[in-house]
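Thread title: Can someone regenerate the structure for this chain?

I was given the following input by a collaborator and told the matching structure tokens would be attached. They weren't. Posting the sequence so someone can regenerate them.
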Amino acid sequence: MKMLLLAALAALGACATTLPQIVQREGGAFDVRYDASVQSAEEADAKANGHCPSAQAEFISQETGFDGFAYRSYRCAERAQ
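Best answer:
Regenerated them for you:
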């Protein structure tokens, strides 16, 4: 029984995702999920900007999800030509 519990805990630890995290959405938008009690909106903005290959991310909105995490929505801005 102890081994089973230890294996289950190890599996859960392997599934843990580092926040902030990119969550893809339909239509070219994406969310950055983060724990507002640990990370700041500026950290989420930096993660979003790193996700956009050729331009800055445009902020759309923010909400708190059912899971208690904050979700900031973005889309990659068009690059100026």
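The CA atoms of residues 40 and 76 lie 20 Å apart.
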